[in-house]
Amino acid sequence: MQADDDQIPAGGGRLTWQHSAHLADGREIIYFDEAPGLNRGLARDLREGLPPVPVPGTWSPEQAVRWDPLLGEWVIIAAQRQERTFLPPPDQCPLDPSAPGRPTEVPADSYDVVVFENRFPSLRGASAVPGASHPPLPPGLDDGMSPQRSGCGRCEVVCFTSDHSASFASLTPRRVRTVMEAWAARTAALSAMDGVEQVYCFENRGEEIGVTLHHPHGQIYAFPFVTPRTRQMVAQARSYAAQAGRNLFDDLVAAEQADGARMVAANDQWTAFVPPAARWPYEVLIFPVRRVPDLAALDDAARAAFGALYLDVLRRFDRLFGTPAPYIAAWHQAPVTDAGARRDFGLHVQVFTVRRAPGKLKYLAGTESGMGVWVNDIVPETAARRLREA
Amino acid sequence: MQADDDQIPAGGGRLTWQHSAHLADGREIIYFDEAPGLNRGLARDLREGLPPVPVPGTWSPEQAVRWDPLLGEWVIIAAQRQERTFLPPPDQCPLDPSAPGRPTEVPADSYDVVVFENRFPSLRGASAVPGASHPPLPPGLDDGMSPQRSGCGRCEVVCFTSDHSASFASLTPRRVRTVMEAWAARTAALSAMDGVEQVYCFENRGEEIGVTLHHPHGQIYAFPFVTPRTRQMVAQARSYAAQAGRNLFDDLVAAEQADGARMVAANDQWTAFVPPAARWPYEVLIFPVRRVPDLAALDDAARAAFGALYLDVLRRFDRLFGTPAPYIAAWHQAPVTDAGARRDFGLHVQVFTVRRAPGKLKYLAGTESGMGVWVNDIVPETAARRLREA
C-alpha cells in the first residue's frame, strides 16, 4: 500500500503528472493528473478483507490460455471473472472516487484520469521481472493437441473522468489529451513487461454490447500472444509489401483520401473514414497522417490534434439515431517484439456501433460467429454519408 | 409458378420424397416429405404483387462482396436485408403453412420439412448454368485496394416442422433424419452450382442471438468464397499433416475419446465433446466416427444414428439453466472445389450457447469483436461435466 509521487511527466510538455500506488489487495493504481502537486497517490485504500491478488507466476487452471488446434489460435480461460460486478446501482459504482464511508476502487477523493489493474482480469501476472511471469505448468498440460499456458498478461481499467454520468463524447479535448497520455504511457510500460506480446487499449460503451459498469471507462489488455486480427493484418501488410513494394496502411489511407466517398472527418494530423469493406453498420477507422507502430510512438502534434477529431466522430455516432450509440473503440497497435511487423504496421483506432437502425442491433449469429463471415446491411458509402451529415 | 412433382428420393432407402416448385416471385421451394404421393409441390403461391427476384447475374451495389485489404477476407454487403421481417406476431408467421385467406412463404397447407430461397438474402444469384452467376461489374469496381464482386451465392430457409411453437429439440428422431436428408440434398445441389465454394447449414435459435422469426427453422448459405474459419481449419489440417503425418480431425477426436474429461455423449456413429479450447460458455463439437468432407458424404448408418444423439445434446443445453437455451448450431463442411482440403477436412457440427449463467449472456465486445480473442468464463472440463449431469 506504499505510495509514491514520483511525478514522472507522461508526455511531452508536462501536460500530465503520473503517480503510482497500490490498492489494498496489491494491485497497482496509476493517477494521471492534469496539474502538479495533487498527491493523489498518497490516498490510502481503506478497504479490509479484499483477498490479495495471486503473485505473478502462480498457476491456476481457471486462469490460462489454451491452444485451439483446429483454428490455430489461443483462447483465454478466465473462470473467476464469472463473479465480476454486474450493473451495480449508481451509488455503488466502484469506479467513482472514494468518499467518506464509501471506499471504491479509487482511494483518492477525486481524479482526472486513473488506471488500475482489473479486479476480475482475463489475464494477470505479467511482471517487469524477467522470467517471473510464466510459472512452470503441471506435467502434461503443456503438450498434446491443445497445450495450455498460464494466462499471463495484465488487464487494466482506465477511468476517463470522475463524473459517473459523463461519456467519452462529453469530455473536453484537454481531457482526451490526458487519456491519450495515459494510453501511451501504459502501452510503453506494459510493452516492457516480461512475456507481453501485444497491448490493446479499447472502450466498450453501452449495455447493448455487454458493458457491466456505466461509469465512463475503457480497458487495456496486455496479451501474452499476438492476437488473431493483428496477425492477419501483419500478414496482409507483409504480403502487400512483397507484391507492391509499398506499405498497405499508407496506400489504404491515400486511396481513401483520393476517393473521398467514405471520408468522415480529417484534420492535419488524422484521417477518419469508413473502411471500404466495413463489417459493421457504422464503422470508422482513424489513422494518424504519419504512420507509427503504436500510441507511444505518436509525436506531440498528433497527440494534440487527436481530441478534437475523435470527439467529432463520437458525437456523430451519437447523433445518428438521436440516442447514445453503443460502440466499441479498438486501438490496433503493432506487436511488441516483432521488429518487421513494427516497421510495417500502422496504428489506428477502429470505432463501430452495433446499432443498425433505431431499435435494431447487429447480432453476431451463425454467419459471423460460426464462419467468421460478416454481413453488413449498410453500404459503406451510405454509412459515410450519414455520418458526414449527422 | 410451375410445379413439378418429380419425386426424387433424397436419401437412401426412400425415407424422403422431394418436390420442387417456385414461389410467385420466382424463388425455388423444395418440399421434403416423409411419405410419397403428398403432391405438396402442386400447391400454388397465391400471393400477388411480390416483386420478382432479380435474374442471376444482375449487378447491384447493395448486393455485393467486398475484399477487406487489411484482413484479407471477403465481407458481404446486403443492404436490402435491412427491411427483413422482424419478430412478427404469431398469427402472421411467414413460415407457417398457408391457410385459406392467409398465404405464407409455404403454399402447401402442411409440410414435413421445407426449404426455400430466402426472400431477404445475404447472397443470391448462384446458378446451375455455367458462367451465368457472376455478372460483369461496372468499370473500376473490380480492382483497387478493395475489389468488389457480385454477392453471388444463395441463401435458403429450412423449416423443420409446420408446428410454429415447436423447437428442434422437440422433434422426433424420424424428423431429424428428414432434416438431415434435406441438409445433405441441398449441400449436394448447391455445391454443383456455378461459383459456389462452400455450403453452410446452420440454425440460430433465440431472440438473444438476434433471431427475427420464432418458427423452428434453420438456414443454408452457399458462399462464393471459402469462409475465414474454414480457411483456417484447412490450413491447420495441412500444417498438421505435414508435421505429424496424420489427420488433425482424426487425432483430435481420438484424443478426446482417450481423455474423456470433455466428453458429453457418444454412440457407435457419433462423438460429442466440449473442445479443449472452447470459446463459448457451453460449446460442443459433434463428429461422425468415420470422417467425411460434408453432409452429402455421410453414409446411411451415420445419418440414421445422428438424431438420437443430437436431440440428447440439444436437450442437455435446454436443461442447463432450466429454460430454452439460445444457441447457434453450425455445420462445418469442406470447401467445394479444393480437392486437397476435401481429403483432409472432417465434417462436424458445432453447437454453442451465448448464455453463461442464468440471466447473463456472453457478449462479443472489445476483445472478441476488436481483436478476435475469445475469453471464456467457464473451464471446458466444468462445462462438459455440467452438460453430462444436465
3D structure, described in words:
The structure is a homodimer of 390-residue chains. The first copy, chain A, has 390 residues and is of the alpha+beta class. Chain A folds into two domains: 3-225, 2-Layer Sandwich (HIT family, subunit A); 229-389, HIT-like (HIT family, subunit A). Chain A has helices at 173-191, 228-244, 248-259, 300-320, 339-344, 366-371, 380-389, and strands at 3-9, 17-22, 28-33, 63-68, 73-78, 113-117, 124-125, 148-150, 152-159, 198-205, 217-223, 263-266, 270-273, 282-288, 327-332, 348-353, 355-357, 360-361, 375-376. In chain A, the strands form three sheets. In chain A, strands 1, 2, 3, 6, 7, 9, 10, 11, 12, 13, 14, 15 and 16 form a 13-stranded mixed sheet that branches. In chain A, strands 5-4-8 form a three-stranded antiparallel sheet, with no helix packed on it. A two-stranded antiparallel sheet of chain A has the order 17-18. In chain A, helix 1 (173-191) packs across helix 4 (300-320) and helix 4 (300-320) crosses helix 7 (380-389). The longest helix of chain A has 21 residues, at 300-320. The first copy, chain A, is globular and about 60 Å long. Chain A starts with a strand and ends with a helix. At the A-B interface, strand 4, strand 5, strand 10, strand 11 and helix 2 of A face strand 4, strand 5, strand 10, strand 11 and helix 2 of B. Strand 5 of chain A pairs parallel with strand 19 (375-376) of chain B.
